[in-house]
Specification:
Elements (H helix, E strand, L loop, with lengths): L13 H12 L4 H11 L8 H13 L3 E7 L5 E7 L1 H29 L1
Antiparallel strand pairs: 1-2
Helix pairs in contact: 1-4
C-alpha cells in the first residue's frame, strides 16, 4: 500500500484475498492485477509492486497459484497468474474468516455510536 495519509496498510491476509479474488475472475499478469484492484476499489486501494510480487511468489510456492509465460498487450514477455483448485478453497476459507472479522468490527463500531 502507498505511504500516503489517505492510505492505510492492509490487515494481514488482505492482499492475498484481493489477489485470489481478482484471479478468480480471470488469469492476469502483475500489472493487470494492480490496475484491477485499484479500479474495482474506486482508487481506494493501491497495491505497490514491492508488496505484490513477493505475495505472488509466496502463493506460487504454496500452490495457490500457477503461472505461465505469456505476452503482454504491448508484446512484452510476462507471467500470467492463474488460481489453482487449492487457491479457490483457500480463498473461500479466508473470505468466511474475513466476513466474521468484519461483522465483529461492525458491532464494535455500532456500540461506540450508541
Amino acid at each position: 500500500m502507498a505511504k500516503n495519509p489517505k492510505h492505510r496498510d492492509l490487515f494481514p491476509g488482505a492482499l492475498e484475498i484481493m489477489i485470489l479474488q481478482s484471479l478468480r475472475l480471470k488469469p492476469m499478469h502483475g500489472y493487470a492485477l494492480v490496475k484491477h484492484i485499484k479500479q474495482v476499489s474506486d482508487d481506494l486501494l493501491q497495491v505497490e509492486e514491492g508488496s505484490l510480487y513477493p505475495a505472488l511468489q509466496r502463493m506460487l510456492k504454496e500452490g495457490l497459484l500457477e503461472a505461465e509465460t505469456g505476452t503482454s498487450a504491448k508484446g512484452r514477455p510476462t507471467r500470467i497468474y492463474r488460481l489453482t483448485d487449492a487457491g479457490i478453497r483457500h480463498l473461500e476459507k479466508e473470505v468466511v474468516s474475513f466476513e466474521r472479522m468484519f461483522a465483529g468490527f461492525t458491532r464494535v463500531l455500532a456500540a461506540a455510536k450508541a
